[in-house]
Amino acid sequence: MRVSRSPSVVAALDQGTTSTRCLIFDHDARVVAAEQVEHRQHFPRPGWVEHDATEIWTNTRAVLAGALARAELAASEVAAIGITNQRETTVVWDRTSGEPIAPAIVWQDTRTQAICDELARDGGTDRYKQRVGLPLATYFAGPKVRWLLDNVPGARDRAERGELALGTVDSWLVWNLTGGPDGGIHVTDPTNASRTLLMDLDTLHWAPEIAAELGIPVQLLPQIRSSSEVYGQVRERGPLAGVPIAGILGDQQAATFGQACLEPGEAKNTYGTGNFLLLNTGTSKVLSRNGLLTTVCYALDGQPPVYALEGSIAVTGSLVQWLRDNLGLINSADEIESLARSVDDNGGAYFVPAFSGLFAPHWRSDARGAVVGLTRYVNRGHLARAALEATAFQTREVVDAMNADCDVPLRSLKVDGGMVGNELLMQFQADQLGVPVVRPVVAETTALGAAYTAGLAVGFWSSTDEIRANWAADRTWQPSADEAQRESLYADWKKAVTRTFDWI
Prior knowledge:
By secondary structure, this protein is α/β, with parallel strands linked by helices. The chain has 16 helices and 21 strands. It has helices at residues 53-71, 113-120, 129-132, 141-151, 155-160, 169-177, 190-193, 208-214, 251-258, 317-325, 335-340, 380-405, 423-433, 445-457, 464-470, 483-498; strands at 9-15, 19-25, 31-38, 50-51, 78-85, 90-94, 104-105, 164-168, 187-188, 223-224, 228-233, 244-250, 267-271, 275-282, 293-298, 306-313, 350-352, 370-372, 413-416, 437-440, 473-477. A hairpin with a 3-residue loop joins strand 13 (267-271) and strand 14 (275-282). The longest helix has 26 residues, at 380-405.
């Protein structure tokens, strides 16, 4: 029988677009153990992207148990659990049975365009932006809820009777972990709530009149709590029963927190399925004039919320997956760099991956993907290089918008995510931005951010000063490109982007 010991680690549950992971961190932010399980991606119609929320919950239980077993730890040694999640992906479920009423609608899904267009007829796409910081777009959770209530038979009547609950994936997981139909806690945090089109950025409360205009009964909505407090304990049977759940952050805000971007003017860029660049703007919200989102960066218990400007790019890492899975251009994602290095440049080819339209700073739902500049000279290597360069070009567009919105221009960029191991991409990114690109020692910044918020709530870490002390740089890429060449490439990229407009 294992002897009970005092807490020595914090667990982070990282529920992402393609997989669910549990990572266990010690006090120095080192990974003690990890477990990961992928879930299926469903594409039932063009523009539709779905997940099975029940599969995600099953995988969550598996990775929590697996990570704890790998670490050879008991529940008594885990101080708390923090949760980070794919943000706008939306689940609606039955409060009594615990069953989702339909597949989860993923953030990339575009089926709600007609709803957004209908709402934009009175006030335009920025109808709610002053209050919620977001344009009307298929990206966000509110229109997804409206679609489910309008299209799942009986859903609206059940919603009006209070039989259903809705949430982003964090709410779904906390509800299940804390008992589900047997007293599960229905909560979210401001970082996730700020991605719904339904939360007032100033009050951090739901805006009932906006919910009414979207046709969403307010009784479906979770309670908004801070990003760092004890919400409840794990009641689901398993090795982590009794451990407090004490932190919630949307995945990109979690990466920002894990990167210790805790002061105004500090920024990070996550290179994952898509790219998400967040700039800490402090306790004052900045409404973008250049196509960026205003969002909550984090809200610690008892402290004023911290805001961020965000540039969301829909397709970056998923473009590499598409080249692998749909075209067979490569056999594994890590082959993309060696193939791209087989040529000296892009051969005049530009790849604009507007598979679900274009997000920041364009917000063009009518755009679709295109490869332009093709000649008989272009080969597989050029296409691979163009795919990587597309990520860097899209990031520069966002940085240019941030520099236009803020008084202080970006001086360096902290990076994380699956693509930061691609050194060709990182150097090209530094060249395009004209500033250093810095990769941290601890690459798992999203999970680490969730761990930090949970650990702060229970006193495992005493203050954010310890978070800053834990951060360290692993490698820095300095810009080295010729200025004229850099601007010529970028000008051709911007020309290529315009070719994708008005396709739908």
